[in-house]
Design goal:
11 strands, 345 residues, 8-stranded parallel beta sheet, 34% helix, binds N-carbamoyl-L-aspartate, alpha/beta, binds zinc ion, TIM Barrel, 3-stranded antiparallel beta sheet, 11 helices, globular
Amino acid sequence: MPPDTLILRQPDDWHTHLRDDDMLRAVVGHSARQFARAIVMPNLRPPITTIAAAQAYRQRIQAAAGTTAFTPLMTAYLTDDIAADEIARGFEQGVFTACKLYPANATTHSERGVTAIAKIHRVLERMQTLGMPLLIHGEVTDADIDIFDREAVFIERVLSPLLSDFPALKVVLEHITTDDAVQFVSAAAANVAATITPHHLVISRNALFAGGIRPHLYCLPVLKRERHRLSLRRAATSGNPKFFLGTDSAPHARDAKESACGCAGIFNAPMALESYATVFEQESALPRLEGFASEFGPRFYGLQLNPRKVRLRRTPQPVPERIGELVPFHAGQTLGWLFEGVIDA
Ligand code: NCD
Ligand code: ZN
């Protein structure tokens, strides 16, 4: 029998959306409760493209979190015309931890994203020299490519050539959803890693249509078929340091989800660790959760491991239908673990 208590080095979330204003105030506490640090996505409107905007956003996050125990790590949103000097200065000043590449129009608030990799070659060169990570939303946007194939086609048409041109660039393929991505990242050099969300470990595309359309399970990259989910579970629980935690928690107001054209994004921050722990337990891999959640990410980014610990208890944990105005991932279900908090031991 596995132990009823799990004590882990405090995890970090290597991919999250904290939004701004009222939504920021509503959601940031959920991330700050479980995670010591979080890579904060820059897809606001307007996007975070300057050092000044990132500093101001970081301050708003810290004020909304109301604790110095939570460190937001800021990212720059790459556009076709972003200046390499601004990126390099932001990294050297400790404002930008990484850059985010959204192919233009791939997902929520990505319309200012990059239209062709050639446009950002100078930026990528500088990032490679600096050792600054590039975080990639890995989907092509061509309307004639089936939406379920967009990640695999991106790997072939965009990521492989990009890594040939910049073989030493640190790359995180974000929120991977396919066995193709697992295979690619596993075979790549040590400077290429991937994050995996709770939802892509827990559900396949069938869940999107179970008994009717389920807008709260719609996200991008969209859920894939079962064999991909099983491959992601093997990767996450394998102990391979190329795969680490990134929730992609992406809250949207309920009416924006429950709509004739619903937004992509799953709000999973409130139960993130419980969700991951449940998966690792199902895979008989609880001893490997700490590496995935708390060690591989900081090592890849070249950051210190967190000094503090958190405690989870194995006990049925019902997830509410609503958290404030938002519908969380696992709403109405019961998870196997309860997050009890940060401990000093
Ligand atoms: C994200 C959002 O809402 O900002 N949505 C999502 O489905 N994951 C954007 C993104 O990460 O693709
Ligand atoms: Zn995201």
